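Researcher: Next entry in the queue.
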Amino acid sequence: MSVRKRVIALVSAVAVTTGGGVTYFLTQSGRVAELVPVAVGPGFSGVDPGPATRDLMAIFDPSQPPLVSGTITSLEEAASRVPYPLYRPNLGDGTEPEVWITSTNDDSGVTYDAALRYGSILVLTYGRWPSGVDPAESYTRSAAEWKAGYVTTIEGNPAWVVPANDQGPGDPPVSVVHVAIGDVEVTLLGQMSVDELVVAAQTLHA
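Model: Structure for this entry, 206 residues:
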């Protein structure tokens, strides 16, 4: 299957996910997120503002889908459709996530992406790294370019960690952890401290 490609672009945007799947960008005010399923690789390299601009915090709102045009489904159904393992955290309290999928058509036919939402505190999105792209190098470059967060490893996997308010109050408004497990990027967006979010990322399992 060909790499799922995306373009997300906002003027003066800060990337909060860099892989080839569902991608959110924040304005420097940290208030606007945009998800547009059209073509690029990691990071952004084009402008297509599209109709899907909304407040990032909407992804935590139980009355709204975490994925634009998404539908709720079972973990089993989502796992049978998306082209990557659905790594999920062990939160220690038995909380089961809402599971959402969305579909788009590209050159290879219909492809699916997924997101998991744990109440109003945690959302996970997923993507695939294109062949030949080094996640650690990409994270290092992105962190330097955006002057955001720090690059580390989580359970031996390359990771880019961006604390809430890293660039000022509300910028970004939530903590963000990107972690590359093989060719899969998992992005965790949490209304919690960055240390708590890193701990959640340490428990990711398929």
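Model: The helical segments are 75-81, 135-146, 194-202.
Researcher: Noted, moving on.
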